[in-house]
Amino acid sequence: MLLDTNESIYIWIGKLSTREDQRLSIQTAIEYLQTDPAGRDMNISIIHIKQEKEPPTFIGFFPNMGQEVLEVLQDIRKNKTRYRTEKCEYERHHDKSDHSDFDQYDKYPVNILKEPNDKLPAKINPLNKELHLTHDDFVSLFKMPYLQFEKLPRWKQQEMKKKVLGLH
């Protein structure tokens, strides 16, 4: 948020703002001054205000923002935090990987999947050969079930695919 008091420009920065957001806010304030039809002095103070660190001089520009409003804002922040926590818990217990697509793919013997890409059956995506392994072959080669493999970081999956079958 940008607040122009005619003597200073306040830039209010939310807690979740990135460094890029902060950089852009300064750039926006400068552009705002440059395009001001009043032809203001470019040496005006630009003051950064961080969320929950608002000084009384800044809060004073919002006369209706009494203690009650601040308490409501704190309640909203707490509810957002609780919501995020509950959402994370829900997603952890209802992870989409519990309903894997692994079983929906046609299965092929390992020796076929080791063939060069141009000799593979048309239904096989060369980038996802592992999906065409049977459960037993997958566990035997990767030393873990597919659902566990699916939860690994993408780089780790790629590394394992190269090592195990030259899959990739």
TrEMBL record:
Domain HP, residue spans: 102-167
GO cellular component terms attached to this protein's record: actin cytoskeleton; cytoplasm
Top-rank taxon, per record: Eukaryota
SMART domains: VHP
Organism: Aromia moschata
BP GO terms, sorted: actin polymerization or depolymerization
Family: Belongs to the villin/gelsolin family.
Protein name: HP domain-containing protein
GO MF, one example: actin filament binding
Native organism taxonomy: Eukaryota, Metazoa, Ecdysozoa, Arthropoda, Hexapoda
